[in-house]
């Protein structure tokens, strides 16, 4: 009988003995800041593309009102909540949330996987990582603050609601994965400098931790890069070259929105996850 495939390690991380430089760990999984940052860069592509897809539809605000699911017996909530919840139930049955990179928006009462999951490899993160889930904050900022900034006001055809909701789900999941990846970033930073982080963790000093893990120059680069990606990924591709201004004007999503998204929400929330993780990093 064919053996079940082994899942890949968390994106861009390598397992003990498999690191690119061939180094052998001492029972610890090998990750470093460069690999973790590479994963964050790759995840930018998913976020930019998912927003471009969502921008095809108008705001479709009916989808987010509780009346939108009134025809669904026994469900109290909006249609978007229903779609995300039901999708997560299915994904949980196939083991999605066994991965430390995945976080459900509706974690209560999710079913256990129905299909056998491969035995868990040694944990990369401290056990307390599983208690950190800030999806309720991500949900709120996405629906209330971000969506109105990049979708045209108005309700389209009701037949487009399902496709719109699937786009929302993709955006939410991509943002959630990226923001919670802060756990891996924090783990690497702690392993690189336990003598710096240790005292701040023992003192439970949030401000000191925030200061230690912040790199303003990196943040500036990230904001510039995501704006550039938005411009490149969302321009009309023509066989006849257009001038640069024309390309910028025809973008499916405003590149400056991406810098703003990262500057105001994505990076601050990733840092919040890092702080929350570090505060628990020395728990027994
Ligand atoms: O690259 C890092 O060191 C991170 O912690 C990630 C990140 C980000 O979210 O992109 C967050 C905090 C830093 O100030 C810079 C960037």
From TrEMBL:
The keyword Transport does not apply. It is found in: Cytoplasm. It catalyses: chorismate = prephenate. It holds the Pfam family CM_2. Residues 1-11 have a biased composition (Pro residues). GO terms for molecular function: chorismate mutase activity. One of its GO terms (biological process) is amino acid biosynthetic process. Residues 165-274 form the Chorismate mutase domain. It comes from the Eukaryota. Residues 1-26 are annotated as: Disordered. It is an enzyme of class 5 (isomerase). Pathway: Metabolic intermediate biosynthesis; prephenate biosynthesis; prephenate from chorismate: step 1/1. Transmembrane segments: none annotated. GO terms for cellular component: cytoplasm. Its main location: cytoplasm. Its EC number is 5.4.99.5. This is Chorismate mutase. The lineage of its organism: Eukaryota, Viridiplantae, Streptophyta, Embryophyta, Tracheophyta.
